[in-house]
Amino acid sequence: MPTTMDADHGQITVRPNLVAREALLLWPRRVAVSAATVQEADLWPVFAVVLGEREPDEDPGVLPLYELLERPEHLDRISVVQARCHWTIIDPRHALLELSVRAKAPVRFDVDIILPARSVLNALDLLARGGTVAITTQRHSGTLTPRTDIRDALTKLVLISCPPSAELEAVAAAVNEAVC
Fold this sequence. Notes:
- This is DUF5753 domain-containing protein.
- The chain is an alpha/beta fold.
- The chain has helices at residues 63-70, 124-128, 138-141, 150-154, 166-179; strands at residues 3-6, 10-13, 17-19, 22-26, 46-51, 79-80, 82-91, 96-105, 109-116, 131-137, 158-162.
């Protein structure tokens, strides 16, 4: 993990940053979007964060994530990562969010993902309750649609469970208030 020195505070850990290309909401074909309940919020929708393809000069801290996404056997099974997640609102006016992921297994990586969330603002209330976040690359996301086949989608995603977020809940409430 890279670190920098700060004369006033000692060592500060600097985590790799990735910028997501887009965010998608994925629902199974047979589940009505309007029928989502609080109980279903931990399952659906899956909030998919789409990353660009790995660059040759990418920070070594994110390589385990990309290697997991690129493994051929990943496409034959579901990949669930044990991790801690935390949402931060970077810029509410421009719908910029940051997802911090600290993964422990099956691979270890720490990454902060900055993502544009304008396309999914209407579903932030579901995400704020906690739920499933998926990470994928543009190559794999090209075959995903908002009403995707579950089996197909889950093999193209790395799944992470995220806890509820008071910050996202506040933004969701503001969005809903502005719309009403």
